[in-house]
Amino acid sequence: MLLAGVMMVASLAHHLFSLWDRKATWISLVFLLFVPLMTWMLSILFPCFESLFQEVEHKQRSTFIISAVILAAVASGWLYRAPASYQTLTLTPQVLSSQQVKLVEIKIGGDVFSVHEEALNGGWVEKEGALIAIPASQPIQKTFLASANSTIEVLFNATPQGGKIRISAGGAEKEFDLAADGPQQKLFTLHSQYRNIPNWLFLPFLVISDLFTFFTLFLALFLLQEKGQQRLGQDRDEKFLSKRASLTILLSLTVALHLLNALSVPLILDSDSTHYLQGAVHWVQYGNLEGFSRFSGPGATFLFAPVIYLFGRNPWGMKIFLHLVAIACVLLSYRLGWQLSKKRWVAFSVGLITMLLPDLYYYANFVMSDLLNIFFVLLFTSLLLDAMQEQRFYRMVLPLLVAALATLLRSENVLLLVIAVLFLAIRIVTKSPKPDSEQSGSRSTRNTPHSLRSLLLALLIALIPILWWSGMNLRMNGYFGLRSSVGTVLYDGWVYYSEASGISIRDENSPAVQQIDRWVSEYPAAITDSSGVATGGEIYPSLIKAGFSSQEAFQLLQQAALDSISSHKQAIPAILKLKLRDAFKPEISHTGTFPLAGEEWQASQAYTEYFDPVVVSIPPFIHLQRAFFDLFNQHLAGVYRAVVLLCLAAMFFSLYRKPTLTWFLVVLITATRIFISNFISLAMWRYTIAGVVLLVVCGVVSLAAVGYGLKALLVRPVTEA
Predict the structure, then answer these.
(1) Looking at beta carbons, which pairs linking 37-40 to residues 24 or more positions away fall under 8 Å?
(2) How far is it, in rounded angstroms, from Cα 404 to Cα 467?
């Protein structure tokens, strides 16, 4: 138990407080104070967790252990960081009167390490880019900070007149002979040590401590979650607000906050907003669909058209509509929390946190499809959970229709349709008959084909709007499908994103890339990015001017992206790592508010094209909104990111919860909403928010389960006594 305490303190203090980088006094003090405390805690908790472990089924135990080992290995590798300490490098030349030592270069951890000043002060001579030691030269000594096991590479020129050199670093000392028959270079490599502790002793201790600590934590979480979800389901005597009271409080607070936000922030439009509005305005004016954009699905346009029809150029119609959608998202999150926990306090907590999400307020003032996408994903998930419980026709057709509408909004949402059909089919086939009687079992068996036929009919009905719009595209644009601009999406997500991030991925030998370069040089693209790299959307007009049709231009961009990806497969891991980093960086790009007295507000060109400028000035609301923007950009964005990452971890832990099929469904929907768009297209927070509310649901429900598990763990000794 003492050894376990030592390893856990060593690991946790290293990752949380960078303990090993601090002074030896602090390290000793931490171990003296916290190792006995950790050992005492483990001695108390171990019997409790052992009892929980024994309650788990044998098959489940194996699953938990294997998963904990894998997760511990992944976490240890991902978070591994060798501690740094000060090292002293000493180069002692040993030369006779006719000998010399020629130092060319020193690298530490791959970076050039300069000893030029120290060498000249020690009587070394600089000649032809090398530092030369003569009999009168003094040793070179320099202290530096390096991580444990960093490579120390020293390059010399060996000659027939070469002497000897003694190199001392990291507690090791070696002597090398630089005499050679002819001129040549010799590279000598040493490795730094942590405070002169041998690497073979210290680094394995650090790695084993991490593996043990993470394994223990993950296994403990599995056990707490398993026990907690049992208690969560058994605790039916809930003393909390009624559903009506909870919803009344949530709705009142949400409406108040959205009213404050709507009265302090103007309607936001950027260049992408026009793709959604141009079709709506054209439809209202001319009564046909020919004005719809090729760069976006028609879903948002269909929803914006009634608003344009009723309110015209008054921006308040659009603002009211978007804020109502955001309020509906809060109510749907409450419903999802209830469906997955059957606890009013959990559902209320989910709704309360969702109400506070800054993205719902930001996109409630932004004419884009993102808020609508969040709403449709939440509505689809809630309706599908109902259908998983009861496979009636109307239950199944509703989520499929919502998935179809979401697909018209964004083409990647077609995965929702696939997920719904797959999981409903699995549920129908695997649903166990009720054990009331043999008659009920046979009736359930006979109902299986009927349910599958109902599912097929529901799918056919849901496909009608998708096939209809695909046919409209064939008639108007010459292609059958939902969207023809996939090429620009893929090009932006891989070629533009990589090049703008400093990773060269363009395949210059690709005929598609060569054609793009040729026509862009003749018809220059209007590049707006500070990196100087053109997006697919900026290249597209150049190709149109060159005589390409829209479909040909999109196909050329797509082929250029595919060629570049296939020719630079070794860069894919680095690009995905960048995408994961950028996908989880919360941001609020537009922080403008209505002007105060004496200030001017200049509406964007896109705004004035579709709406009349309307200014509302309520100073307290505006000051409060500006203070929030400042607080978010300075502090809250980092906190928000940490919370989202914790919820992401909770989402993956939900795979081990019961009912298994339901939680697999929720995790799959959430993961695809977050990762598919970020991996295919540009990686940005805007695409991540489609799954953030579902992450909140997973996080709160998992936290509730772990809380019940802790309660069961801590209360048990008292009850047994």
Answers:
(1) 38/4, 38/5, 38/8, 38/9, 39/1, 39/2, 39/4, 39/5
(2) 10
SS3 content of the chain, % helix, strand, coil (to 5): 65, 10, 25
| pLDDT, tens digit, 9 for 90 and up, residues 314-368 | 999 999 999 999 999 999 999 999 999 989 999 999 999 999 999 999 999 999 9
In contact, 557 and 487? CB cutoff 8 Å: yes
Q: What residues contact 398, with CB distance under 8 A and at least 6 apart?
A: 383, 386, 387
User: Is it true that the peptide bond before 204 is cis, omega within 30 degrees of 0?
Assistant: no
Instruction: Point out which residues pair with 84 in neighbouring strands.
Output: 147
Co-location of 272 and 380 in the same domain: yes
What number of helices (H) and strands (E) belong to the chain?
Answer: 27, 10
- Structure tokens that stand for 488 in this block: 């620009």
For residues 268 and 367, membership in a common domain is answered with: yes
Could you give the angle at which helices 692-720 and 637-653 cross, rounded to 10 degrees?
Answer: 70
- The angle, 0 to 180 degrees and rounded to 10, between the axes of the packed helices 438-477 and 393-409 is 30
Lowest-pLDDT range, 229-233, 340-344, 597-601, 717-721?
717-721
What whole-number distance in Å separates Cα of residue 331 and Cα of residue 325?
A: 10
Q: Are residues 290 and 220 in the same domain?
A: no
Q: How many domains does the chain have?
A: 4
CA distance 376 to 90: 66
- Which ranges in 410-547 belong to alpha helices (H)? 414-430, 438-477, 486-490, 497-500, 511-522, 536-545
Question: Are the beta carbons of 579 and 505 closer than 8 angstroms?
Answer: no
Strand partners, 179: 159
pLDDT per position as a tens digit, 257-304: 999 999 999 999 988 888 889 989 989 998 888 888 777 778 888 999
d(CA 365, CA 320): 9
CA–CA gap between residue 696 and residue 654 (Å, rounded): 12
Q: Under a CB-based contact definition with an 8 Å cutoff, are residues 234 and 719 in contact?
A: no
Distance CA 500, CA 246 (A): 48
Look at residue 440 and tell me whether its pLDDT is greater than 80: no
Tokens read off for 290: 């020919």
The reply to whether 175 falls in a domain is: yes
Q: What is the pLDDT of residues 100-152, one digit of tens each?
A: 889 999 999 888 998 888 899 899 998 888 898 888 889 999 999 988 888 89
Strands (E), 70-134: 84-94, 101-108, 111-112, 125-127, 130-133
Residue 478 has pLDDT above 90, yes or no: no
Q: Is the dihedral of CA 353, 356, 362, 365 positive or negative?
A: positive
**Residue written as tokens 């953030």?**
692
Domain shared by 88 and 76, yes or no: no
pLDDT surpasses 80 at 716: no
Phi, psi of 323 (to 5 degrees): -70, -35
Per-residue pLDDT at 433: 53
Type of residue found at 82 = A
The dihedral through the CA atoms of 536, 541, 546, 550 has a sign that is positive
Decide which of 376 and 235 is more confident.
Answer: 376
| Residues spanned by the domain of 96 | 84-193
